[in-house]
Amino acid sequence: MPASQTVSPAGVEEIIARHLHREGPMLPILHDLQDHFGCIPAEARPAIAAALNITQAEVHGVISFYHDFREEPAGRHVLKICRSEACQSMGGSALGEAVLTLLGLGWGETSADGRITVEPVYCLGLCACAPAAMVNGKLKGRAEAKALVAEVSA
User: Fold this and answer.
1) Distance, CA of 99 to CA of 145 (rounded, Å)
2) What is the pLDDT of residues 41-79, one digit of tens each?
3) With contact defined as beta carbons under 8 Å apart, do 129 and 142 qualify?
4) Are residues 53 and 98 in the same domain?
5) How do residues 12-38 score in pLDDT, each as one tens digit?
6) Of 133, 130, 131, which is closest to residue 120 (Cα–Cα)?
7) In the 3-class helix/strand/coil scheme, how is 11-62 assigned residue by residue?
8) Three-state DSSP class for residue 135
């Protein structure tokens, strides 16, 4: 995950301009901004809205609808734990609670040192290997709390 960078209006405008030629440019713009800054900076919303001729509320609606978009940078390690029914039936709820307890965090929180963010997700597509998790983009089936915590703490 890229380190958060200082938001410059010129940098935001450059990213927006790269995608304006596309049909449906909003999602590519948002993904590119997040890749560059580690989140979708609030300072970018007016420029996105103006470039796409929509309201800032519409921009906010898209950002808040998609769970992978962030308004604040995530930790250096992102741990996502599946909360869907299949994983819950195989111990996913207990897995999530154990991980949160071991790390001293709540859902969606980032550790004070900025190392770890824990997020709930709703299906990682590993239902047959439940409970499932994702560590820094890598899927983990039959996940165990201590192993997940060890991986993000290393």
Assistant:
1) 5
2) 999 999 999 999 999 999 999 999 998 899 999 999 999
3) yes
4) no
5) 999 999 999 999 999 999 999 999 998
6) 133
7) HHHHHHHHHCCCCCCHHHHHHHHHHHHCCCCHHHHHHHHHHHCCCHHHHHHH
8) strand
Same domain, 83 and 120: yes
- 65: which residues sit within 8 A by CB, 6+ positions away? none
Task: Assess whether pLDDT exceeds 80 at residue 10.
Answer: yes
Instruction: State how far the Cα of 128 lies from the Cα of 141, in Å rounded to an integer.
Output: 8
Strand partners, 121: 82
The residue range of the domain holding 33 is: 9-65
CA distance 105 to 103: 5
d(CA 147, CA 140): 10
Tell the residue number behind the tokens 């410059």, with chain if given. Answer: 8
Per the domain annotation, does 3 fall within a domain? no
User: What's the token pair of residue 82?
Assistant: 């599946």
For residue 146 the two structure tokens come to 């201590």
The total number of structural domains in the chain stands at 2
Q: How many CB atoms lie within 10 A of CB 112?
A: 9
The model's pTM is: 0.80
Structure tokens at 145: 């709390």
